[in-house]
């Protein structure tokens, strides 16, 4: 049996848009829609297999070559690094990295070393290094908005999509850092060894994206 081409999809935030994109490309995603608790799903009538994983693990599986292709947020790529080709900006999952803090607080006032909470410690460190600013960074796993409210940090570096979470928790954006969105990534060896199968798939996605732009 020929080895399937494995595509790792990020569960949660990006899942719905990714499945919709594959359906618009003409792939039968019934198995994914009816997945239950299964984590590896076939795409009927193709040699493709979908692997559902957490964002950071999508990057790890593609980096290590156990998945050939991945769909993951630029936020995760920026935080984790990794060696793979980033071949396309898929245009969904759009949000921004931002520095945010409690309303009414001036981040730059005073001389104390600021404490920053983030799930994205490398992104936060890079941001402050570019400013030549010495900060102390504390890693938080989720709902990072809690950290300044509870008094653990002065500010947070996090992704902002609609801004609702900040607003509903009394926080405001002090500075936008950069835009992020979902990206298509490909394992370096896979692209060489399975070029005949992977390149047409990338081309199909690129054509689809070009069509979306002109709509
Ligand atoms: C992200 C992010 C914010 C929120 C922003 O968290 O960390 O908390 O979404 O979205 P909004 O601007 O539309 O309100 P996510 O829901 O991914 O969960 P997490 O806190 O567990 O990381």
UniProtKB/TrEMBL annotation:
Q: Provide the protein's localization.
A: Cytoplasm
The processes (GO biological process) annotated in the record are: L-histidine biosynthetic process
Its Enzyme Commission number(s) read: 2.4.2.17
Q: Does the keyword ATP-binding apply?
A: yes
Q: Which InterPro entries match?
A: ATP_PRibTrfase_cat, ATP_PRibTrfase_CS, ATP_PRibTrfase_HisG, ATP_PRibTrfase_HisG_short
Tell me the domain of life.
Bacteria
Residues annotated as domain ATP phosphoribosyltransferase catalytic? 54-206
Q: What is this protein called?
A: ATP phosphoribosyltransferase
